Structures are given as structure tokens and as C-alpha cells.
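This entry is retained here.
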Amino acid sequence: MWRMLVCVAVGVALVTGGTAVAQQDKDMHGKIVKVNPDKNTVTIKVGEGKEAKEVDYKVAATTKFWGADKQTLTEGLKSKNLKEGTEVWFRTGTGGEAMTITELRLFKPGKQP
């Protein structure tokens, strides 16, 4: 009986952990509403129609930025390419970093640049 309970608990832990990893690698899509390089934040409108909402995300020193030409944007949030209405694809961290963008692209990702 105990052996079965332990096996079930381990299985649940593995499935839950695998889901967290899968969500971390998921690209999200939206449009820039506002960029604030001084506060290292960007507001992105995510979702469609009535489901759309504006979300404030943090940007870390380690955040990677790519332009539409799939080249690195070395200016980060100060790039002139990041302006209101720009379509972006991005990933966030997990846990306490879920509201921090780790990667931001100005092109629809397929393979990593």
C-alpha cells in the first residue's frame, strides 16, 4: 500500500515538473503598449478581443532581444525598434521570475537564431 502511494506521489511530481518546464519554453505573442527603459519594464497587450489585457513585464540584464532581421538588439529596451504597436514574441521565467521576460523577438520564432 505504501509503495503504491509513494509511486503515485513521484509520478505526480514528475508530471507537474514537466509541465512547468514546457510552459517556460512556450513563446507568447502580443503588441507593445509602452516601453520604460528607465524602470526596465515593458507593457505588452496579450490576447485577442475581449480576452486581451495589458500586462507589465520586467526586463533583466540577461534578457535577450532580437530584431526583425533576427539579429541581436544590443540596445535592449532603448532600441528604436521597440515602440507602441510593435508585434513581439517573448518568453518569461518561471516561479518568482514569471513576470520577467527572458527573450523578446520582433519575428515569429521557429528555430533559435
The helical segments are 2-24. The first strand starts at residue 28 and ends at 36.
